[in-house]
Amino acid sequence: MCVCVWGGPSISSHLDRYGSAAGMRSENSSTITELVLVGFSDQPQTEVPLFFFFSLVYLANCLGNAAVVTLVALDVSLQTPMYFFLCHLAFLNGFFSTVVAPKMLFNFLANRKVISYPFCLAQTYLTLFLESTECFLLAVMAIDRYVAICYPLRYLLIMSWAMCTALAVAVWVTGFCASVIPLCLTTLTLCGPYVVDYLFCELPILLHLLCADTSLLEAMMAVGGAGTVLFPFLLIVLSYLRILVTVVRIDSAEGRKKAFSTCASHLAVVTIYYGTGLIRYMRPKSLYSAEGDKLISVFYAVIGPALNPFIYSLRNKEVQGAVRRVVERYKKSAGIAF
């Protein structure tokens, strides 16, 4: 779950600018029509360059993650448990960025940087659901690597397609039940002014705008965070500790190198995902800035998901070989057609 700070020294200027907006009335949430997302509007000279940069990143995100799913579907050699879960990660990353990026990009160029209240709620629910699901998915991918390295002869027997499908369904259902359902049981009555110094809607935004006491919701968030973030992270750590013990016992240097190489991509993705969270939550207050928080949020929402397909494909001989086979098949079929 992500923490953001609403308000700031420039909020008064945005109150003046958007004060007549329907969503700015100091009434309860039944009358809200829209909220103002300040974003980088205090630095208007940066908005156009940021629009073009993040547009390219988002395009790479969509194309890269779609390419992963397409390649696994077209090449039989990649239809293994590891790439099965990678397809789920690619779909999740593309979906997450699509929930956030288009409206963010639009607001970079818009004069009125607003978001409708229903769409803000949708962003809040979806980002919470997808963040929770990604934590569980990364844990399952770590367990898959643990079984592959520690029990290589029984790997395909243990990680059968029935088991992989059950794990994938469990990941999505658990992510939904651990995040969205508790939030649905909470009444969110908001009070104005509806101006948020952020780029998109997340639960802490609504938390800062709630009229009622938020102590119960904050306690639920703490418990939910422990279940959806710390528990999967613990599974990842335990899996890699067992992997490390097994790899150390391998006699040949080539065997150890091969074992580590199968985990390198997943470790890189986990490091980026959890590292971003640590930087955001654990940094000292002296290093905090609202602008820095926005950049970090864009990194995990847009840039990080765009990097994942490249992390899994660069220096991956299986993926490179699959690309060559798919291209060759396409060339042959095109040759036959002509």
Question: How would you describe this protein?
Answer:
This protein is mostly helical and 338 residues long. Helices cover 72% and strands 3% of the residues. It is built from 11 helices and 3 strands. The protein has a 3-stranded mixed sheet with strand order 2-1-3. It is globular and about 65 Å long.
Q: What's the short version?
A:
This protein has 338 residues and is mostly helical.
The SSE order reads: HEHHEHHHEHHHHH
Q: Number of DSSP helices?
A: 11
Beginning-to-end CA distance, first to last residue: 54 Å
Biggest sheet features: 3 strands, mixed
| Rg measurement, Å | 22 Å
Please count the beta strands (DSSP E, at least 2 residues each): 3
- Average pLDDT across residues? 81
Topology:
Blueprint: H1 11-18, E1 34-37, H2 47-74, H3 81-109, E2 114-116, H4 117-150, H5 155-158, H6 161-184, E3 195-196, H7 203-209, H8 215-248, H9 253-282, H10 290-313, H11 317-337
Parallel strand pairs: 1-3
Antiparallel strand pairs: 1-2
Keywords:
338 residues; three-stranded mixed beta sheet
